[in-house]
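call fold(seq) -> tokens
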Amino acid sequence: MSEKQALGDTKVNEDQTKADLKNHVKLEAGEATQRADDQNQLDGQEALRPTRLYKRRWMIVLLFSSYSLCNSFQWIQYGIINNIFMKFYNVDAFTIDWMSMIYMLTYIPFIFPVTWLLDKKGLRVIALVATALNCAGTWIKVASVKPNLFAVTFLGQFSCSLAQVFILGMPSRIASVWFGSEEVSTACSIGVFGNQLGIAIGFLVPPILVPNVDDMDELAHHISIMFYMTAGVATLLFILVVCVFQERPKLPPTQAQATARSIPPEHYSYMASILRLLRNRPFILLIITYGLNVGCFYAVGTLLNRMIIDHYPGEEVNAGRIGLTIVIAGMVGSLICGIWLDKTKTYKQTTLAVYFMSLVGMIIFAATLSLGHLWVVFITAGSLGFFMTGYLPLGFEFAVELTYPESEGTSSGLLNCSAQVFGIIFTICQGKIIESLGTLAGNIFLCVFLLIGTIATGLIKSDLRRQNANLLAKAAAEGQMTGQDYGATALISQPQTPPSQA
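ret:
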């Protein structure tokens, strides 16, 4: 059952508030209906639903993080040794760039059917499909290790990119379904952590496993080893998901999640949810700003090998290590930001600060790349990664706050869709700028859009709906609030005074 709401003592105030709230429910949540039973209506109050945290939640988020890692590793495994795969498959640099950009392009048309499937079938089905597609893609790649089979390796990468659609937006959903309100941002950060660690390994391992040798047979052998290792890990993770991954806990972890569960499936409309999200102005601004930031990260990751080789010829391994530094620093940033959000709930302030520092980091990276000192590049790249990659879970969690009680998978999906669109645009444009004007001009191009994103982030109204719902539930549990409940959407869509200030 949903939280109790404090209403006025007089009958007039009670009736007026009831009418206002019902009207808002109709506007904001469509067919969402009142769930109180007849006896509770007579009593004028509701009991809170039981909640519980299960130890299994850590196994679920770590398993998700692991198969997200395996998938994201493959996003960058071609791009970070761009020149080697160009030689092996006899294709140009732009073609190899598409081995990364296919992850972005695939996401755009498939995200809406996938989020619809998430709402209809739940997390377990999504996890099974994701790991099955990822596993299939890795074995297709194993069969593609011949210079004339580029089309086959592209098919394998397409299968993995399709799996990513079932993965990328899930951290916030898993965190909300399984974790308590004081740990939900940390859990989301752990989910994002796996994706980032996979990218980090994708930067580090391919240059080590696949050296730049001229003998095609030897090169094929090295590539084959890398593909077989990936396929073995993907197969193991698929088996673990089949055996271990669970849809959701028997009891919800929070009152906010209990309220979300209380809406009958027949009263939920996926299209109506999308339309409500698209009418949510703060969320629309977040979609744009998230896309600008993460799109810049995708461009930097895809083109990093080219940028480093331009200034430091023959440093493929160090290019991978610089990519590793970016992502490792970002993983630390993600975890710190997640813990900070759980303790402070300062979503907008933290998001704006991290966004601004991403801009500063990009400016410094652009200015120092051509100095001729690799150790300087390592430091500046690490600073850039700490903030730019650390921004990822902030965007997810801020979106959930702005859009509660809508599906977390839908809001995250829209954020990621924006990131993929901007990622493709930025990667193509920056690649062309680097070819004609050099790496400095290409990086300045990204700095301009990060500046725009920083300004737009400052304009986002901080309407923390999920936080308000949990505050109301906490107050109700302490016996501070009495009266009839009119639905979670009505409660959280109006300004609330925290219990301590009431």
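The chain is about 75% helix and 0% strand.
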